[in-house]
Amino acid sequence: MADQQESIHFVTGRLAESAVREIVAQLSHKHGFAYSIDVLPITVAALMTPKWLMRHIDVPANTTRVLLPGYLAPHIDELRTQFSCRVDCGPKDVRDLPTMFGSKRHRSEDYGQYKIEIIAEINYAPRLLRRTLVAEAQRLIEQGANRIDLGCEPGMRWSDVADSVREITDQGIAVSIDSFDAWEVEQAVRNGATLVLSVNSSNRKEALNWGVEVVAIPDDPADFQTSMVQTAAFLSDNRIPFRLDPILEPIGCGFANSLGRYLHTRALFPEAAIMMGIGNITELTDADSAAINTLLLGFCAELEIHSVLTTQVISWAQSSVKECDLARRLVEYSVRHGVPPKHLEERLVMLRDTSSIHPSPSTLIALAEQIKDNNYRIAIDGQNIHLMSANVHLQGTDPFEIMQELLKLPESRNVDPSHAFYLGFELSKALTALTLNKRYEQDESLRWGIHTRPEKHHRLARKKAKDE
Questions:
Q1: Using one digit for the tens of pLDDT, what is the confidence trace for 220-253?
Q2: Which residue range(s) make up the domain with 200?
Q3: DSSP 3-state assignment of 276?
């Protein structure tokens, strides 16, 4: 809770006044600080400049902290020299004010470290032209993979494997070969592959000739405690480095039991390297992959499983490598600090939003009453879309109906084709936000985590502020 003697002076423009008063009153009640609100004579706070601000701001004598609009952040050092108390910039969106009062977890400077290696598999590598194969390997590395796994085709020998592996490793990329064909594996390791997926009782003797690390798997997942342990003993006796993979099985096909095998494997081999093939879940489950990847990597982090094999073939898992890269950093931080992985990595929140606070209907009604110009404002309250300008306040859930209603009004005479396109685009965004309970702010991108596309500001001009 904030110090009882703290008194915060909030600065805003006229259009955001109602929202600021509503949110600040709630924060004051929750955190116990005193406050004052300075509504400056400007419609949009984003148009304030430091010089204009200093001509109009009126800070009470007992103020301990001044909180300015977020768009002044680039000028914060200059502004701090003008005040005798602490000065900060709030967020650009007033709905984010609560994050400044404890609802967002602090991240230490060590955030971003990780121990889990991402092995990205290229399925059916022999089917690809070599230049395509090399380009895909480079793309996966750029997305966060540490190693590229070349998936071969059972029953069809890859005659070009040596040259393909060499060309990829010449790019400085670590390669593993995924094959039970001893000839393919031998050609791959001779040309730079440093890991073989996989070996069991059927081919473990071949590993004596390869001189590289291998992944040991059970002959059958059901007998892992016998066959995988025997293969591990053989490899250990012959000083062949290995990782263990008791095989993760799809949901409905033994998923829970397979998680238990990883726990059992760690108990049997407290110091051994373990790998988990997570694609069996992300590729074979009708669900977006980000949350699944994060959960599985959290399991790996707690069990000290330091490598995962993933692929991104199916449409709902086509950003798995990038998701795993973010997730491994998130779960590593969580495990190291003993904190839940919450309010730490917003880029993994894609379909929904990290916060879905909307202005209340009463706040939007007050806003609409203050508008004196013909520029259209669009907002959502969680239930309806609001379209507002001078003498216009339309509500609904269907952008087409809102536009039809608008065009019946005499005030719509300023809606030319270009303006209509803009309104349609923004209303469509608002409907998407309403459907998914996402945040909507006019002229700003909807937030899609790692898939967010920045948008240019087409209507909120960044011009010098003028007194109004």
A1: 998 888 999 999 999 999 999 999 999 999 999 9
A2: 117-342
A3: strand
What gap in Å lies between CA 68 and CA 452, rounded to an integer?
27
Q: Is residue 112 part of a domain?
A: no
Q: In this structure, what DSSP letter does residue 16 have?
A: T
Model's pTM, two decimal places? 0.80
Q: Are 288 and 351 within 8 A, CB to CB?
A: yes
369 with 327, same domain?
no
Tokens representing 240? 């062949």
Please list the residues that pair with 88 across neighbouring strands.
67
Exposed/middle/buried for residue 361 (C-beta within 10 Å: 0-12, 13-18, 19+)? middle
Task: Please report which residue ranges of 45-174 form alpha helices under DSSP H.
Answer: 50-56, 76-80, 130-143, 161-169
The predicted-structure confidence for 177-212, as pLDDT tens digits, reads as follows: 999 999 999 999 999 999 999 999 999 999 999 999
99 CB neighbour count, 10 Å cutoff: 15
Whether residue 246 is found in the same domain as residue 203 = yes
In this structure, are 204 and 248 located in the same domain?
yes
Phi–psi pair at 151, nearest 5 degrees? -85, 120
Examine the domain organization and report whether 333 and 368 are in the same domain.
no
